Amino acid sequence: MPKIPQHDAHHIVFGAGLIGCYLGASLIKSRQLLSLYIKPEKADELHAHYSISDYLGNTYTVSNLPNLVDKNNIDNLHEKADVLWLTVKCTSLEDVIEEVKNCIDEQTIIICCQNGVNTHKGIKLAFPQNEVIRAMVPFNVVQKHPGNFHRSSEGNLTLEVTSTIETSIKWLVSQLASDNLPIDISYQMTALQWAKLQLNLSNAVNALIDVPVKEMLQDRRYRLVIALLMDELLKVTKKQKIKLPKITNLPNKWLPVFLRLPNAIFNLLAQKMLTIDPLARSSMFWDLSANKTTEVDFINGKVIDEAAKLDISAPGNRLITALIKKREHGKTDTHVDILKRFDSLLKSHK
């Protein structure tokens, strides 16, 4: 049974992008021994400046850089990880398995921080000798300027607790929790991932309409589409008899109802939901902007796949997925065309 050393435990954040760099600085703030497995161009950026901030005004600047490692200088990694935080996107998991092997031994606890539901299973198959657990990352991280990583929305990082390493995970949480990184635990991670997936269904809508998340939520035209996507997910989880934990102020089944309220009422009642950086956008928007493959197959696509198994219709998530795929292939609809597709979808469900 792996046990995290209570002194000088070595953490590796593997795939230090926005979430990974934010997590890394938070670990340094908590006085953890850290290595960042990072792209060379990101290393140059961190050498110039490395800091984190959040929407509540908390800030922290890293004064002494951690060990920076990439596949070309793996010799810089002097010891294996006690804890490896795998923060690459779902789309990259299969591609990094060989590189991960260089960072771990059989005692390493691997924490998978991906979106989606049960996306960690490939890692469990690749590393059957290791404890592999899941983390749910509820907040967005944006980059306001080079070297700064800004948590733009609320939520507690949540780590899965399993019977074999319960004590170690609880101890880890006690060491890492801070103002910059509030942390919780869960014994029901699959249900929690479905609850998070419900919220993530809006990512694709945000990517398509090209406005900040806050502006999107303030507009009922977009909320109606998101509510429909959520309805389809809730039909799936109801038929699967999955009880979704509440991760917002409202129970999950009431979120679509709330989103359908008129703008004046919604904007009055949703002040906490709207306590986000006014410039924040979904990660899927940034992926499309960078011509990267998105995670739509693991988010909206997951609803489509599970709905098909249960003979449930999911036209909303099918449309959104198709529109994102079209964007991935460089074909761009106008904003007016997107709104027309949304209107047609909503009219067919009245």
From TrEMBL:
Protein name, per record: 2-dehydropantoate 2-reductase
Catalytic reactions on record: (R)-pantoate + NADP(+) = 2-dehydropantoate + NADPH + H(+)
PROSITE patterns hit by this protein: PROKAR_LIPOPROTEIN (PS51257)
EC numbers for this chain: 1.1.1.169
A Pfam family reported for this protein in Swiss-Prot or TrEMBL: ApbA_C
InterPro entries named among the record's database cross-references: 6-PGluconate_DH-like_C_sf, 6PGD_dom2, ApbA, Ketopantoate_reductase, KPA_reductase, KPR_N, NAD(P)-bd_dom_sf
Family in the record: Belongs to the ketopantoate reductase family.
Domain Ketopantoate reductase C-terminal: 190-328
One GO biological process term: pantothenate biosynthetic process
Organism: Agaribacter marinus
This protein's GO CC annotations: cytoplasm
